[in-house]
Amino acid sequence: MKSTTRYLTFTIPERMGFRNITSEVAAIVTESGVREGLCLCNAMHITASVFINDDEPGLINDYRKWLEELAPFDASPTRYQHNRTGEANADAHHKRQIMGREVVVAITNGELDFGPWEQIFYGEFDGCREKRVLVKVIGG
Amino acid sequence: MKSTTRYLTFTIPERMGFRNITSEVAAIVTESGVREGLCLCNAMHITASVFINDDEPGLINDYRKWLEELAPFDASPTRYQHNRTGEANADAHHKRQIMGREVVVAITNGELDFGPWEQIFYGEFDGCREKRVLVKVIGG
Amino acid sequence: MKSTTRYLTFTIPERMGFRNITSEVAAIVTESGVREGLCLCNAMHITASVFINDDEPGLINDYRKWLEELAPFDASPTRYQHNRTGEANADAHHKRQIMGREVVVAITNGELDFGPWEQIFYGEFDGCREKRVLVKVIGG
Lengths: 140, 140, 140
Known about the structure:
The structure is a homotrimer. The first copy, chain A, is α+β, with helices and mostly antiparallel strands. Chain A has helices spanning 22-32, 57-70, 90-99; strands at residues 2-11, 17-20, 37-43, 48-53, 102-108, 111-112, 119-124, 130-139. In chain A, a hairpin with a 2-residue loop joins strand 5 (102-108) and strand 6. The first copy, chain A, is elongated, with a radius of gyration of 16 Å. In chain A, 50% of the residues are buried. At the A-C interface, strand 3, helix 3 and strand 8 of A face strand 4, helix 2 and strand 5 of C.
């Protein structure tokens, strides 16, 4: 069984932001030499997500608005007990649960086996600092 | 390492609908000959989900109602910017995030290793057209 | 390819409750002898979740409150059709979809490959009875 492990590092220059990381993940799959297997791609931080959806800027704006409705930013310790710790990012821990921590993508014939519109996104909900994404490829 | 890749294709005859695909996935696991491994099962479209829950018609109706409350259908470009592209399915992209893209199921002794009520569902949020689900089995 | 399968069993003494299971999962990874691979950890019941987030009691309380807002407990068959079956746990089936069924964690150099704050939680939404979590390790 072959395996490859890589870490992507980036700083999103906003509190909430989204980045298409498909080409970076695809390059790691190519580098791994795996022809048939699985690719795990996960946020290593608990205020961020990795998810698959459409690379359409209007949709990304819709997600921003919707996540803010479902789990509004509120730095006070009144709405969120977590903010009694001195943090102001409780909302980010909630937004991440909606969008998910990870994706697992099939590798077939040496490539990410995607439907027509699938793109891998990093979703940041507590940005302006360096964060990491893990990409693990296993297979034969 | 063994691997098997199959694609399930179907057209749900409603905008939102659910289909139990457990037996189709189980047949692919049997066909693969894998005794110990993992089975990835994911929607290949970004307005659909694969998830595991109970095959109880009342619950499925509850999910329909709940998803409509969390992310209402609205074809206009006012609520959802995505619909400025000419699409009317922004709500479906949101519903899919709640229910998830994929499941990963353990294979033990050649079978899907399920708890007593676990069933795999395809959830369609923008139906009336052909869609695909990917099933990838890896293991030994 | 090596594989190890273990089942964790516990009874959460409340209807909704959370338990950090990271050390139990890590011990299974060590026992497996897998150096590079994947660890699947999933609830085997459809009214429970396995997810990764921060081990901070205030945040856990925030999740309780938020999940109750998104999918309120209501034993009557009016809000939830599922409760017409004689069950009172429809809300739990909804809460579980928000928090997810499973996590897949990379194993690197024989250990769970975690970011600084990642901890694995079992989330129970219909407790006071025995439930199981499956841990499957595959790799080389």
